Amino acid sequence: MRFFLSFYTALPLAASSVSISNQNLKRNGERKMYRKKSDYALNKLDPDAIVYRDATGKIHRLTRADFDSEEDFLRWKKWSDENYHAAEKKETIESQRTVPFSAVSEARLAALSAEAQISEAGEEAERKEALMNLLYEIRDLLSEKQFRRLWMWRVDGMSEEEIARVEGIRQQNVSKSIQTALKTICEHFRKQAKRGCKNG
Questions:
Q1: I need a surface site. Which of 5, 43, 67, 155 has the fewest CB within 10 A?
Q2: pLDDT at 12
Q3: What's the rounded Cα separation, in Å, for the pair 178 and 167?
Q4: E-assigned strand segments in the chain
Q5: Fold designation for 124-199
């Protein structure tokens, strides 16, 4: 399984590296500029200056006259070309390995990885267990009649009149039983919350 996952993740990377090498070659074997208005392209296309952008995006040129010697200019020109090229290459590779959110299909977004499905299933099981424990706790607080009537009213969606008809009693008795059950539950959890605040 581990081999399959590493192969599965390596495949797009290999495909993107092949497309990079093919895309960047012109017919005559010369390297192609990635983006014509990039810092790399602006600097490379101006052999008599080092071109850079300041923090506001304004373009500046440092010419040979700005340096003490021709040697200094050429050393810094070479360094800037290499630096811009490395940054451009890194950015291009990264952009080819990512997909814009708008290009991802809804079905692909809906599909969860195996790890996410396992994690989600575990979280769901924990939630169900917590709810069952809460349900048992509430059941233990109430009488059998109170719990049954509250269940029919809240879970089954029956009206007090329907419950009264099923049990053969008056609606007022059902109402009183449900209200007492709710009050008991509220008091129990209010006490628990107070204890939790004092301990926490």
A1: 155
A2: 38
A3: 14
A4: 49-53, 59-63
A5: Arc Repressor Mutant, subunit A (1.10.10)
